[in-house]
Design a protein that fits this description.
The chain has two domains: 193 residues, Hen1, N-terminal domain (c-terminal autoproteolytic domain of nucleoporin nup98), CATH 3.30.1610; 213 residues, Rossmann fold, CATH 3.40.50. The protein has 18 helices and 14 strands. The strands form two sheets. The protein has a seven-stranded antiparallel sheet. Strands 10-9-8-11-12-14-13 form a seven-stranded mixed sheet, with helices on both faces. Helix 10 packs antiparallel against helix 11. Bound molecules: S-adenosyl-L-homocysteine. S-adenosyl-L-homocysteine (SAH) binds next to helix 12.
């Protein structure tokens, strides 16, 4: 069984420090069930790939078992030596224990940083198929490529197997990536080689810290990880729910990821950002505020546009702003760049004098997160108090929801949406606002236009009338 981890972070050989394994050395680690070895298949400044090769010996597996238990052929002949399973998790915890805990003596700043990482698993059993695999990793931000493996190439009639060759890509801290693998590989395999007891809850909590409680499939993960032992699963979920109450931002972010997954197929997000950028550029605005900037996707585009001199990202969620800061790598900014971009925590339903004096405001996929009864307060705040020359507001077109295969009828795209409007509802609202506050308004659709239900996203461009 082979697992490789690659990075293109520069210099890529820093991976050696992060994993605490020297790229020039081949190292062997005895395990109770076989042997693990670590070596590098490439190691230069542009790319570095570390390989963990796990050799599971089925004879070793049987050896420790009590004599009274019946020995079947399956105990000797099975898939365990060839597939990623809980044995691999044990090997990761042993061989990469320092990296898994997020410590790094020589390069502590890189251990703390999200870097581009690609994982390749030669054979990963996925009970529940590719859909389940994606359900596990996509909410955590991974790009998943799965190649199904046939049972036997010589006998195509035997059909597909539950095994996949899997590539996972993400920009993420190495410790987070290792903890995702540690928990999710056995969950996908849905089989564990050891007895599951109370101490497994502790392991799940420890390695799931910071992500499991916000994962949309956390119950399923806990259930499978704990081998479907209802008592243990109940305790684990109770602990996760307790954590929930502490971190509402984390839940919000996970919900946002769900929405992204749903819309990804048509790369709606990119189309939306491109349309917004086009309007902003043509307006010639030099001072732009992104209200409800979330993780900073629009800010990233704004920064690339040299004609824009002042950029401010505002969000009510501190965690979202933290992620935006990491994504934009603000810690690497020069003094000039630092004064060009501000990130601030503020709510759109309170007046904040820092938010006046902008030529253009973007409110992208935000209004549907506000309670309908607060919308009037937001309107006055934006169009009367901040009063930019131009405001761009986008929101989902609820009519289009029937075109999303994975979205049950009547459900919104995101669990935090307080409402989703039809085209008529949005236009009625926007026309009313424009009239009340002295703006002109123009509508555009974003995403593929469907004859019957329109496009997935609707946009209103408000321009102040002189
Ligand atoms: N504009 C971003 C994020 C959209 S998600 C994008 O297009 O990717 C909605 C965002 O609005 C979230 O980050 C949420 O934290 C933020 N938000 C919700 N209510 C808010 C409020 N009252 N004030 C400021 N931001 C708010």
């Amino acid at each position: 069984m082979l697992l490789t981890i690659s990075t293109t972070h520069n210099p890529a050989t820093d991976l050696g420090y992060l994993l605490h394994k020297h790229p020039d050395r081949y190292q062997c680690f005895p395990m109770t069930f076989g042997e693990a070895s670590v070596f590098y298949t490439e190691a230069n400044a542009d790319k570095c790939t570390a390989a963990l090769l796990l050799d599971v010996n089925p004879i070793d597996l049987v050896r420790g078992k009590s004599k009274s238990s019946e020995r079947s052929l399956e105990q000797y002949v099975n898939d365990r030596p060839y597939v990623a399973s809980s044995f691999l998790s044990v090997a990761i915890a042993k061989v990469f224990s320092t990296a898994l805990s997020g410590r790094c003596k020589d390069r502590p700043e890189i251990a703390e940083k999200a870097i581009p990482l690609t994982v390749y698993l030669s054979v990963l059993p996925c009970r529940g198929g590719e859909k389940f695999l994606r359900k596990m990793f996509e909410p955590l931000g991974y790009q998943v490529t799965a190649t199904p493996l046939v049972l036997d190439e010589k006998f195509p009639d035997w059909g597909a197997s539950p095994y996949f060759a899997v590539e996972l890509q993400n920009t993420i801290k190495l410790a987070d990536l290792l903890s995702h693998l540690y928990v999710l590989i056995p969950v996908l395999d849905d089989d564990k080689h050891y007895w599951v007891g109370d101490e497994e809850i502790e392991k799940l909590m420890r390695h799931g810290e910071g992500w499991l409680n916000a994962h949309p499939a956390r119950e399923q993960i806990a259930n499978r990880y704990l081998k479907r032992q209802r008592r243990l699963t109940k305790i684990a979920i109770a602990q996760l729910v307790e954590e929930d109450n502490l971190d509402p931002d984390a839940i919000e972010l996970s919900h946002q990821q769900e929405e992204e997954v749903l819309e990804r197929r048509i790369s709606l997000n990119e189309q939306r950002l491109a349309s917004v950028m086009e309007v902003l550029k043509s307006s010639g605005a030099k001072r732009v505020v992104d209200l409800g900037c979330g993780e900073g996707k629009l800010l990233q585009f704004l920064l690339k546009e040299s004609s824009i001199e002042q950029i401010t990202g505002v969000d009510v969620s501190y965690r979202a702003l933290e992620i935006a800061g990491e994504r934009l790598q603000v810690d690497r900014f020069s003094t000039a760049q630092q004064s060009r971009l501000q990130l601030m925590q503020s709510s759109l339903i309170y007046r904040d004098s820092r938010l006046t004096g902008f030529e253009a405001a973007a409110v992208i996929e935000v209004i549907e997160h506000l309670d309908l009864e607060r919308l009037a307060v937001f309107e006055r705040n934006l169009f009367e108090f901040m009063r930019p020359q131009r405001a761009i507001v986008t929101t989902p077109n609820v009519e289009y929801n029937v075109r999303f295969e994975n979205l049950p009828a009547g459900k919104f795209r995101h669990r935090d949406h307080r409402f989703e409007w039809t085209r008529k509802e949005f236009q009625t609202w926007a026309n009313g606002v424009a009239e009340r506050f002295g703006y002109g308004v123009e509508f555009r659709s974003i995403g593929t236009e469907d004859l019957a239900v329109g496009s997935p996203t609707q946009m209103a461009i408000f321009t102040q009338q002189l």
